[in-house]
């Protein structure tokens, strides 16, 4: 289980940081996608892209990201962004008897999408029936912990092994404040090294009834970058996952989350929680 711990002095510092950041960074919640990223208008809260040139065996990526770790009940949407070839998203592996039994997109043309909600823990492989060398993996975890104001779940459970997954989707759901998917809300997220007591990342995020933040770790990231969210939908109001990539070293970390505002009004009192998790090599 993911451990939960509350510390009054840390809470006091965190609330002060939230209020100070609100004054100094009024536009912090506005995130600019990078050159390889764009909003998608459809359902699904986590986007996997079928990249241009995906039909070529020598392509660096076919599905991107090719391997993800998400909490249970995450809805993944595959977006067909290859103008040269049609593709499929088919569960299982080529030639396996269960191929396509769990999900199968059928033939997807350019700019089409397919989505599927993963409601059970496990490893789910998939491939393209037209180009069977194109494969991907979705790892689903059902571990979660209940804090005083939030339920916290991750794609890897209590320990994130960097050698197994370079990315990990975190999800925070308020439990003491009733929010609809159409209710605008903002959250303040802080990640600190528990051993050094140093804050390694903090940011405001606009969302609705939950906050989803994917951490992406890599030694080639010389600075921490935030992008997203994954979609701007006219069907659902939740924006989906945000992404934070940086060089997150192995160690013990504390995640702090605050429900800062609801419907444009400052939450009073501020619902906040702290959760601990471990990164291993």
From TrEMBL:
Coiled coil: none annotated. This is Plastocyanin. It comes from Candidatus Nitrososphaera evergladensis SR1.
